[in-house]
Automatic annotation (TrEMBL):
InterPro entries: Beta_galactosidase_C, Beta_galactosidase_Trimer, Class_I_gatase-like, GH, Glyco_hydro_42, Glyco_hydro_42_N, Glyco_hydro_b
Lineage, uppermost ranks: Bacteria, Bacillati, Actinomycetota, Actinomycetes, Kitasatosporales
Boundaries of every Beta-galactosidase C-terminal domain copy: 607-658
Name of protein: Beta-galactosidase
Gene Ontology molecular function, alphabetical: beta-galactosidase activity
Beta-galactosidase trimerisation domain ranges (all copies): 399-596
Binding site for substrate: R119, N157, W318
Protein origin, superkingdom: Bacteria
Entry's family note: Belongs to the glycosyl hydrolase 42 family.
Domain Glycoside hydrolase family 42 N-terminal: 22-387
Catalytic activity, EC: 3.2.1.23
PANTHER family tied to this protein: BETA-GALACTOSIDASE GANA
UniProt KW keywords: Glycosidase, Hydrolase
Biological process terms in GO annotation: galactose metabolic process
């Protein structure tokens, strides 16, 4: 133990809300740089990320270094009071690397090489790639570690690479030997007695490449874990280099929300700053809820303030149809992120590209230039963030509800041969979070083995695979007086994807009052099942209760009279996915019985209210004006005006109220 204080986001914010985005000046002639700085200052930009995709410019040929342009930019930013989040450029290797070292290129499950010409074309297990990545990181850290513009390090970008090639296969075998020790242990964990898959030597084990028929689910599960770990090794190797040069400068790498290949709980423990990219669809009526889900999850991973590394000021370019953001929506969603704990609001990117694959992805300065609506709205947002920063930066959010989420449970449940391919874990998770959001209940996310005692209500949308420690944690929470609500397909398997006797862990069946879970009855697309007071979707179960205390039964069909929702004390089990309004009402009622209520009562449907510290954010996600009852007298930090008992919000309007 060195006693050194770990760097944090607060070391970069210094009482401000960071505002800015990815800046890629290498795409532009130098005379544009000075115009960019002028526009940044006018917009209140105080932070830019440099160098994310600059490897070929920094190292145009093996071992060469071209730092002069970056020296100029670092100095230019410092002279104008703009901090730099300096990236290592290792997410996009130069073309020469793949040409000279084809071992650095990833291979798909069906044996195809992913060539240069895009990005993320690196093998996480390649010793050659790691050597080059470490060298450029070392030189960047040595050159700029003492530069006064540097506020944070940004390692790589959106780690998201799978690799099934030979070098990855060798690394997978090493990872498995370290985990299991013996082939007997591996064969038992993977259930290789099925389909004659028993391994007699380590060299016979491969990644789950494309087979004739279904893959071994235990092998796939471990390969998911391995991939997350290998990418994490790449991150920590570069992090440790920059940390050695700048021990007091925080380090981050940006998550893609709910990406299947990365256990973000484990990653967050290795980051000084947890950052994420959020791109809701402006046409999605639940876009704000999807944003809130990612914000709640990221705040929970950070255990406090977090960084919105990327969002779009306008349209993206990777949906089938890429809609722009209506006037006011960019501001609203940015304030929503701050309301839910963000201390940094940033974009990809500063100036919209004129060439390349993302030239139709918006920038803070769009193709319309400084006179365009996008930049004018960015200027307004910059002023808004400066006004509210002193009252919100560093403040925390208190939630009395926790939603449990685990990547390992997701990975285990996503196997090919599951009872219903229509049951997609992220969709179930979103449905339960949507119900809480529409009930105006702020929630955290938690890992099933985290301390749950701070919460009154714990919600488990679906955790197919649970460790014994996780199950004991749920039991302790419920027996300690907490209210536990579990959805279907929870506790079915252990951490090796071995189905527990009875189709659900016996301890959980006892907790919920289930004598026998006879069968799972998945539903077809468009099919619903009638229940007392609502309709269920997606799934149903044939349950024989041990106790008569159930609150809703199935009506009609094979399951007529059998329990759809069971309750035993403070433990609830929901064996279907109720339609959205029904799930909202159920969770609101359960939370209310546990003493958990919204921040404001009587909120209109499209209005969101979140309390951050002592500051109340009231956000209108509707296109029509609305009046919200806010008892007492407050000052709106956005306008400086006094608000007594009620506030009127225009289309996509917001108020940030201090008592």
């Amino acid at each position: 133990m060195t006693g050194r204080k770990q760097p944090a986001l607060s070391d970069a914010t210094r009482g401000r809300l960071l505002f800015g985005g990815d800046y890629n000046p290498e795409q532009w002639p130098e005379e544009v740089w000075h115009e960019d700085v002028r526009l940044m200052k006018d917009a209140g930009v105080n932070s830019v990320t440099l160098g994310v995709f600059s490897w070929s410019k920094l190292e145009p040929e093996p071992g060469a270094r071209e730092f002069g342009w970056l020296d100029t930019l670092m100095d230019l930013m410092h002279e104008n009071g703009i901090g730099v989040v300096l990236a290592t450029p290792t997410s996009s290797p130069p073309p020469w690397m793949g040409r000279l070292h084809p071992d650095t290129l990833p291979v798909t499950e069906d044996g195809r090489t992913e060539w240069w010409g895009g990005r993320q074309h690196f093998s996480h297990s390649s010793a050659t790639y790691r050597r080059y990545a470490a060298a450029i990181t070392e030189d960047l850290a040595a050159r700029y570690g003492g530069h006064p513009a540097l506020t944070m390090w940004h390692i790589n970008n959106e780690y998201c690479t799978f690799d099934y090639g030979d070098e990855a296969a060798a690394a997978f075998r090493r990872w498995l030997r370290e985990k299991y020790g013996t082939l007997d242990a591996l064969n038992q964990a993977w259930g290789t007695a099925f389909w004659s898959q028993g391994y007699d030597c380590w060299d016979g084990i491969l990644p789950p490449r494309l087979p004739h028929y279904m893959r071994n689910p235990g092998q796939v599960l471990d390969f998911r874990r391995f991939t997350s770990d290998m990418l994490l090794e790449c991150y920590t190797a570069e992090r440790d280099i920059v940390r050695r040069h700048t021990p007091h400068t925080p380090v981050t790498s940006n998550f893609m929300p709910l990406w299947v290949g990365q256990d973000a709980w484990r990653w967050a423990e290795e980051e000084d700053v947890v950052s994420v990219d959020i791109y809701p669809d402006p046409r999605d009526p639940l876009g704000a809820q999807n944003g809130a889900l990612v914000q709640d999850m990221t705040r929970s991973q950070a255990r406090g303030p977090w960084m919105l590394m990327e969002q779009a000021a306008g349209p993206v370019n990777w949906r089938g149809v890429n809609h722009p953001k209506p006037r006011g929506l960019n501001r609203l969603w940015s304030l929503q992120a701050v309301a839910r704990g963000a201390d940094a609001v940033c974009y990809f990117q500063w100036r919209q590209s004129r060439q390349g694959a993302e030239k139709f992805h918006s920038g803070m300065v769009s193709h319309a230039g400084a006179e365009g609506r996008t930049y004018q709205e960015v200027k307004q947002l910059g002023a808004d963030l400066a006004r509210i920063a002193p009252q919100v930066t560093g403040r925390h959010i208190t939630a009395n509800v926790a939603v449990l989420h685990d990547w390992n449970a997701w990975w285990a449940g996503a196997q090919d041969g599951r009872p219903s391919s229509r049951v997609e874990y992220p969709d179930v998770l979103r449905a339960w979070h949507q119900a809480l959001w529409q009930a105006h209940l702020t929630c955290d996310f938690a890992h099933p083995e985290h301390d749950l005692t701070p919460y009154s209500v714990v919600v488990v949308p679906q955790l197919y695979a649970l460790t014994d420690a996780a199950i004991d944690n749920l039991l302790a929470f419920a027996r300690g007086g907490g209210t536990l609500v579990c959805g279907f397909l929870t506790g079915v398997a252990d951490e090796d994807d071995r189905v527990r006797p009875g189709g659900m862990d016996a301890r959980l069946r006892e907790l919920f009052g289930i004598r026998t879970l006879h069968e799972w009855w998945p539903l077809d697309a468009g099919e619903t099942v009638a229940c007392e007071g609502f309709h269920g979707t997606l799934w149903s179960e044939e349950i024989e209760p041990a106790d008569p205390d159930h609150t809703a039964c199935y009506k009609g069909g094979e399951l007529d009279g059998m329990p759809a929702v069971l309750r035993k004390g403070r433990a609830w089990y929901v064996s279907t996915l109720p339609e959205p309004e029904a799930l909202r009402e159920l969770l609101a009622r359960i939370a209310g019985d546990a003493g958990v209520r919204p921040v404001l009562d009587g909120l209109p449907e499209q209005v969101e209210a979140v309390l951050r510290g002592e500051v109340l954010f009231v956000l209108n996600h509707g296109r029509e004006p609305v009046t919200v009852e806010v008892p007492g007298t407050h000052q709106d930090l956005l306008t400086g005006t006094a608000v007594t008992d009620r506030v009127t919000l225009g289309r996509y309007g917001a108020a940030v109220l201090r008592p």
